[in-house]
Amino acid sequence: MVCIESKRGYLRASLQHIYQHVRQLYAQILRTIFPDDPLLTQFLAVSPHALQTLTRTARNELCESCFPYKNPILRAAIHALKYKGDRRVARKYATPLARAVIRRVPSHAVAITIIPMPASPYRMKQYGFNQCLLLADEVVRIVRQERPHTRWGIDTTTLIRTEGTMSQTKLHKAARAAAVMHAFTTTTTFAGKDILIIDDVWTTGATAR
């Protein structure tokens, strides 16, 4: 029985390894056929130090944003993450995001639950990924190294997006709030938990609230 379970574990690990290689190859083929946006190329070439100089933190008691979305280079990177699932962007953005997370979390914190803003069923069917989960994966990878004494977890089941919403790009603040008012539900309570929500774009904060 132990031998069978061991073989199953080895097979599962091998298949995951093959899957990751196939995904990387597929991404390389796509980039060959459809070259990156020149602005995205500039973003990917930016050094960590130079990227830090582009950081412009905006924050209040509830939310914190690391980069100005109006910057065309950063906006091109967010679009590549949001609509193409570009993990290169997630990895690059993860470091400043992780710093923001660590600033928010007390050093004595025992356990933190990170919730990637959920995608609607329609978006998941259309794109097949949640860009906020890609960001959360990379952020947790870093914060676990920086704060190993804190238990970091990603929760994708408690907060559920039940409705898709129209693009909020051109909506004013009140309209944004109305658009997302009934778009989410929870499967259980957050009482007693320390949570952080990761979203890709923060404009008015309507979705986070």
Strand order of the largest sheet: 4-3-7
Q: State the secondary-structure class.
A: mainly alpha
Number of strands: 7
Q: Stretches where pLDDT falls below 50 for ≥5 residues?
A: none
Shape: globular
Helix count, per DSSP? 8
Order of helices and strands: HHHEEHHEHHEEHEE
Roughly how many Å apart are the termini? Answer: 50 Å
Features:
mainly alpha, single chain, two-stranded antiparallel sheet, three-stranded parallel sheet, 209 residues
Brief write-up:
The chain is mostly helical.
Structure report:
The protein is mainly alpha-helical and 209 residues long. It has eight helices and seven strands. The strands form three sheets. A three-stranded parallel β-sheet has the order 4-3-7, covered by helices on one side. It has a two-stranded antiparallel ribbon with strand order 1-2. Strand 1 and strand 2 (64-65) form a beta hairpin. Helix 4 (72-84) crosses helix 5 (87-104). It starts with a helix and ends in an 11-residue tail after the last strand. The model has no long low-confidence stretch (mean pLDDT 79).
Question: What order do the helices and strands come in, and which of them pair?
Answer:
Layout: H1 2-33, H2 38-45, H3 48-54, E1 58-59, E2 64-65, H4 72-84, H5 87-104, E3 111-116, H6 121-127, H7 131-146, E4 151-154, E5 159-161, H8 173-180, E6 184-186, E7 195-198
Parallel strand pairs: 3-4, 3-7
Antiparallel strand pairs: 1-2, 5-6
Helix pairs in contact: 2-4, 4-5, 5-7
